[in-house]
Design a protein that fits this description.
With 114 residues, the protein is α+β, with helices and mostly antiparallel strands. It is built from four helices and four strands; from the N terminus they run H-E-H-E-H-E-E-H. Strands 2-1-3-4 form a four-stranded mixed beta sheet.
Length: 114
């Protein structure tokens, strides 16, 4: 059973159906943290975020491009309350939301650099 995320008050379990859940859990098998990136085609801040990710070697486990995503991915994004891109999400190994960074905020992103 999934635990409750203390900082956001909800779990990944609420966001996606069982079939999609398998995809997200698979990404968590070899790490203590799982990182997802939500982006859109042609988004200037998404390009800046991608450059930051590459420059700092941040491993993104799943990218959802809202310009061409599945219905399940769009449901996942909307149920998280994401209204704009880019967004980086960090989950623990139980798929609880640990952190979110909305937009391109280099100061907030620095704490993601290991």
């Amino acid at each position: 059973m999934f635990g409750k995320c203390e900082s956001f008050g909800h779990t990944i379990e609420k966001y996606i159906n069982k079939e999609v859940l398998v995809i997200y859990i698979m990404a968590a098998l070899n790490t203590n943290e799982v990182i997802y990136k939500i982006e859109s085609q042609g988004c200037p801040d998404c390009k800046k975020l991608n450059n930051f990710i590459e420059r700092h070697g941040i491993k993104v486990d799943k990218t959802i491009n809202i310009s061409h995503c599945t219905e399940e991915e769009m449901m996942f994004v909307s149920q998280l309350g994401i209204m704009s891109v880019p967004v980086l999400l960090k989950f623990d190994d139980n798929m609880n939301v640990l952190d979110m960074v909305f937009g391109y905020d280099e100061t907030k992103l620095q704490k993601w650099v290991k």
